[in-house]
């Protein structure tokens, strides 16, 4: 076991084991995460050429602790130790998580070890939501209770009507969803007791149950239609579709192909480890704020066009292209940088085909069999065909991501373009909640607080530039 310490060893001691306290030590236990077997434990030897001092930083689970670098200092009294600089977290793990595993090069996505393909084919969305949070698939008894609890809590307080009615007729439904989720905190003040198991549990149930209701109410508000209250005889997805679509019929009967398609899309979108919105949820939640406020941060992050907002942008892009014969010209404009990005392509993690995109493409075929081929599908297929054979895209490993085809499916089901990201948010709520709880119960986590490299002016004396003195 190497010793803990920050004192430098002489440069000539490079290969010697630590005997003088110069070697940093690890206290973290290796887990059985997929990264562990190949890596085992080890050490990273670092020589600081400023001081000629050498350090060994422990490697555990293919990672070094950035705080170990802090021990690398110079004689300068202002030097508070070496930092790592990683804008946009390109290569920095912010947590240890047992929820979702992605291998971006191989196109693998697993929730709690289960391949996404198997879950999409065989599971229900609420089964997956349970799995994400609890780590195991539910027994029949657990599942029945969970479905009952989520169904029981689908109603929102009547004051929510007034809250939603305050929005303009053309409000973006993501803006409505974001503020509504945050607003729920005011209805459940005891939800702030986040370390009380019962409070945490009921908040999680409420968020899973009420997000589809609020989403559907936002849809009806924009359409100028009366709100449809939850029908608790229906399944999670059917109930949502009923609140969106039901008119005068006494019982809404959804198209079974749409129900299954939406269930699968919800499963595919349920979690995706430390993406932008999940990091926002964890970051905001790390201040120990209530879960409604933390989840609204996730909705806000998801709204952005580089994240969940991409599905909306794909449809806008396709509409702008207008005709399949314009595709080559559009691709050229993307490559030259004049035409913006090819939305729905590229991913920070996947450097091969997004496994979710494969499933979505098959799903699109099934939905189009029922509703007829979407007029823009031809454009999408041509975009994909050209991009996948073009050196610009292949050399940058840009492949279709989950959002490339989802918009076409959503539109063929009758959802307006600006509602697509809301559908994503309903599903991702399950992942955000699981990640939030994991973060709270992780003893290693503290309030999220990145460091910075200050590049502003040195100290200077205040001298007003105003002409009228205070
Ligand atoms: N179209 C054209 N070029 C692209 C695209 C794209 N969609 N995505 C990346 N590139 C190019 C970049 O211009 C850059 O080229 P360069 O090396 O010549 O400068 C290179 O590929 C690397 O791009 P980065 O921006 O560094 O990649 P990053 O990992 O930061 O971005 C992202 C990932 C944001 C998803 C990006 O690929 C993108 O903007 N895609 C379009 C938006 C989209 O579909 N987002 C949804 C992602 S899935 C989700 O969030 C659910």
Characterization of this structure:
The protein contains 19 helices and five strands. It has helices at residues 36-39, 66-69, 116-122, 125-134, 140-152, 159-165, 173-184, 197-223, 236-245, 256-269, 276-285, 291-303, 310-321, 327-336, 355-371, 377-388, 391-395, 403-412, 420-441; strands at residues 42-48, 53-59, 100-103, 108-111, 114-115. A three-stranded antiparallel beta sheet has the order 3-4-5. Strands 1-2 form a two-stranded antiparallel sheet. A hairpin with a 2-residue loop joins strand 4 and strand 5 (114-115). It is globular. Acetyl coenzyme *A (ACO) is lined by residues 306-308, 310, 334, 341-348, 396, 398, 401-403.
Topology of helices and strands:
Elements lengths: L35 H4 L2 E7 L4 E7 L6 H4 L30 E4 L4 E4 L2 E2 H7 L2 H10 L5 H13 L6 H7 L7 H12 L12 H27 L12 H10 L10 H14 L6 H10 L5 H13 L6 H12 L5 H10 L18 H17 L5 H12 L2 H5 L7 H10 L7 H22 L29
Antiparallel strand pairs: 1-2, 3-4, 4-5
Helix pairs in contact: 3-10, 4-19, 5-8, 7-8, 7-12, 8-9, 8-19, 10-15, 10-19, 11-12, 11-19, 12-19, 13-18, 15-18
The structure holds acetyl coenzyme *A.
The site of acetyl coenzyme *A has 18 residues, from loops.
What does this entry show, briefly?
With 470 residues, the protein is mainly α.
Distinct compounds present = acetyl coenzyme *A
* Helical coverage, percent range: 40-55%
Low-confidence stretches: 1-33
Q: Mind telling me the C-alpha Rg?
A: 26 Å
Compute the number of helices.
19
In spatial order, strands of the major sheet run: 3-4-5
The helix/strand series, from N terminus to C terminus, equals: HEEHEEEHHHHHHHHHHHHHHHHH
> Average pLDDT, to the nearest integer?
90
Could you tell me the number of beta strands? 5
Biggest sheet features: 3 strands, antiparallel
Structural class: mainly alpha
Q: Can you tell me the overall shape?
A: globular
């Amino acid at each position: 076991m190497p010793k803990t310490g920050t004192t430098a060893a002489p440069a000539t001691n490079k290969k010697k084991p630590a005997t003088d306290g110069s070697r940093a030590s690890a206290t973290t236990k290796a887990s059985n995460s997929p990264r562990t077997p190949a890596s085992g434990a080890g050490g990273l030897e670092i020589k600081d050429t400023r001081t000629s001092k050498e350090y060994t930083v422990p490697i555990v689970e293919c990672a070094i602790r950035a705080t170990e670098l802090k021990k690398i200092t110079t004689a300068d009294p202002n030097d508070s130790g070496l930092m790592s600089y990683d804008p946009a977290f390109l290569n920095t793990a912010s947590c240890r998580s047992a929820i979702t595993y992605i291998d971006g090069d191989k196109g693998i996505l697993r929730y709690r070890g289960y391949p996404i393909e198997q879950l999409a084919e065989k599971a229900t969305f609420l089964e997956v939501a349970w799995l994400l949070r609890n780590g195991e698939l539910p027994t029949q008894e657990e599942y029945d209770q969970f479905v009952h609890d989520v169904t029981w809590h689908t109603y929102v307080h009547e004051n929510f009507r007034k809250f939603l009615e305050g929005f303009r007729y053309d409000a973006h439904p993501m803006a409505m969803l974001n503020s509504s989720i945050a607003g729920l905190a005011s209805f459940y003040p005891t939800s702030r007791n986040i370390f009380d198991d019962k409070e945490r549990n009921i908040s999680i149930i409420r968020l899973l149950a009420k997000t589809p209701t609020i989403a559907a109410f936002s849809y009806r508000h924009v359409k100028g239609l009366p709100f449809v209250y939850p029908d608790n005889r229906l399944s999670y997805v059917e109930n949502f579709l009923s609140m969106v679509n039901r008119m005068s019929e006494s019982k809404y009967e959804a198209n079974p192909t749409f129900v299954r398609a939406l269930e699968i899309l919800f499963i595919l979108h349920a979690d995706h480890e430390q993406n932008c919105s999940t990091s926002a949820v964890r970051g905001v939640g790390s201040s120990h704020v209530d879960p409604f406020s933390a989840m609204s941060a996730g909705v806000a992050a998801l709204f952005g066009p580089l994240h969940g907002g991409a599905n909306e942008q794909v449809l806008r892009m396709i509409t702008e292209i207008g005709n399949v014969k314009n595709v080559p010209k559009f691709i050229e404009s993307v490559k030259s940088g004049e035409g913006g990005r090819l939305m729905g392509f590229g991913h920070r993690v996947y450097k091969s085909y997004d496994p979710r995109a494969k499933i979505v493409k098959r799903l699109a075929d099934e939905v189009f069999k029922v509703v007829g081929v979407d007029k823009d599908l031809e454009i999408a297929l041509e975009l994909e065909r050209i991009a996948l054979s073009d050196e610009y895209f292949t050399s940058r490993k840009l492949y279709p991501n989950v959002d490339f085809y989802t918009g076409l499916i959503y539109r063929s089901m009758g959802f307006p373009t600006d509602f697509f990201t809301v559908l994503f948010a309903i599903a991702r709520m399950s992942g955000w909640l699981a990640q939030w709880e994991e973060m709270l119960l992780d003893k290693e986590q503290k309030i999220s607080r990145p460091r910075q490299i200050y590049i502003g002016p040195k100290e200077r004396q205040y001298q007003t530039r105003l002409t009228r003195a205070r």
